[in-house]
Amino acid sequence: MNASISRTFRAALWTGGVTLACLTQAQGLKASGALLTPAAAAATRSSAEPQTADRIVVVVNSEPITQHDIRSRVQRVAQQASRAGSTLPPQTELVRQVTEALILERAQIQLAKEQGIKVETSVLDDAEQNIARQNQMDVARLHRQLESEGMPVEEFRNTIRQQIMVQRLREREVDARVRVTEAEVDRFLAQKRDNPGADLQLHISQILVAVPESADAQQLANLMSRAQMIGEKARAGADFSNLVREYSDAPDRARGGDLGLRPAERYPVLFVDATRAVKTGGIAGPVRSPAGFHVLKVLDKKVAGLPDDTIVQTRARHILLRPSARLTETAATEQLAQQRSRLVAGQADFAAVAREISQDGSAAQGGDLGWATPGMFVPEFEEAMNRLAPNEISAPLVSRFGVHLIQVLERKEVELSPKAQRDQLKQLVREQKMEEAYKRWIEDVRSSAYVEYRDPPQ
Q1: How far is CA 222 from CA 156, 207, 211, 216, in A?
Q2: Domain holding 219: CATH number?
Q3: For the chain, how many structural domains are there in total?
Q4: Secondary structure (3-state) at 441
Q5: Whether residues 294 and 328 fall in one domain
Q6: Is 294 helix (H, G, I), strand (E, B) or coil?
Q7: C-alpha 68 chain-centroid distance
Q8: Which domain covers residue 388, as residue numbers?
Q9: Which residues of 269-291 are buried (b: 16+ CB within 10 A; e: fewer)?
Q10: Where are the alpha helices (DSSP H) in 199-349?
């Protein structure tokens, strides 16, 4: 790959180093923030480097933040905003925000060191290897690319180390202390369901019995009776789409009367009020509007922020080659590309090839991974799998485990058990509480730090 590595890294806006979305949760990390480009990193060298002609702007406890640190960070933010087409705040406000971000970074790293948080060399090595894999290269090539863009390898590794330290500090000080009670889950659920407000989403299908503006009382009565008859048929179990085609006067008749899933506020208030007490699959009406009489079927009703009642499960299989000293990642990719060509052409059987060459535990089952729910696989694998149609075979995919070929066999929608829904709700409440706790914690870290302003930042 000849493209600059910085094209495959995402520039960080406010964080000072490299957050590692590609590390596994088993290492105690969560994906957050963004990857720092080597070019940007080279422009934002640590203040530990000698800055003979630089002036100190702020001292955080005993560590200085220099004008060079602030100017470099501002430059990186501006470059990122330019690439994203974003609008920056006025220069004075931008400098203030960047300075505050640097203060918070320094304070957190210092606190992590005080608490004895360290990063094992093996974890650092794994992080570096995963970053290389995400960029379709080996570690040696990653090092060469970094050096060519002006960033020493040790500085890059130190930046990674600091980010892991800060993440571990947060997990120890915030995440591990958050507890969720059953009563909190009940309150969250009640608040969402009883007062959905703008969070309510409706999916409605309608049958319209149009009423002409010139209709007299007898015509109106006849049309109302027609609408009531349609409603009775719908409630008795008649196919609603057939009723639409037979009776509806609405322009959406060709679509089976389907009005789509949309926020409740985008539906007429009349429809929202009529379906408020109706469950999914239920019938409401007829209700009168200026256009006529409407018979409504609730196809779906959900509250944004609550888990769905169903999930889509995917059954897939894969072939995995693990790069090693004898098999480079490039060679593994080429080998699987050749196998894919044979499979697509019908010259080989996927299960047979998996049993023959796959280096995963699923090889004996022809690579079959069984039915998987969302979140079971690492993100890069799951994202590629979700893009595949049934029976489609992916191009070779590099993940943290190696190089894969993936084939989706089938998908199905599964209703979640009450316990599974409850577990999802509990996780939602936990994430909400962790975010609130983190905000309080970061305020405490900031207020506890000794911050001395030496010179106005520019």
Answers
A1: 79, 16, 10, 10
A2: 3.10.50.40
A3: 3
A4: helix
A5: no
A6: strand
A7: 34
A8: 310-415
A9: eebeebbeebeeeebbbbbbeee
A10: 217-235, 240-247, 269-275, 329-344
Per residue in 392-422, pLDDT (tens digit) is 999 998 887 889 999 999 999 887 788 887 8
Same structural domain, 233 and 115: no
DSSP 129-177: HHHHHHTTS-HHHHHHHHHHTT--HHHHHHHHHHHHHHHHHHHHHTGGG
Q: Which of 124, 76, 121, 82 is nearest to 98 (CA)?
A: 76
CB 297 within 8 A of CB 404: no
Does residue 328 sit in the same domain as residue 290? no
Which backbone phi and psi does 402 adopt, to 5 degrees? 150, -150
The whole-number mean pLDDT for each consecutive block of 10 residues of the chain, a chain of 458 residues, reads: 30 33 28 36 41 76 90 83 83 90 92 91 85 78 84 86 90 90 84 63 87 86 90 88 87 81 83 83 88 88 70 92 86 93 94 95 94 86 90 90 92 83 83 90 92 82
Cβ atoms within 10 Å, residue 298? 19
Cα–Cα distance, 301 to 203 (Å, whole number): 6
159 shares a domain with 207: no
CB 411 within 8 A of CB 312: yes
CA 293 and chain centroid, separation: 43
- pTM value? 0.56
- What residue has token string 């979640």? 416
443 assigned to some structural domain? no
Phi first, then psi: what are they for 320, rounded to 5°? -120, 130
Instruction: Give the torsion sign (CA, 198, 201, 202, 203).
Output: positive
DSSP assignment of 374-429 equals: TTSS-HHHHHHHHTPPTT-BPPPEEETTEEEEEEEEEEEEEEPPHHHHHHHHHHHH
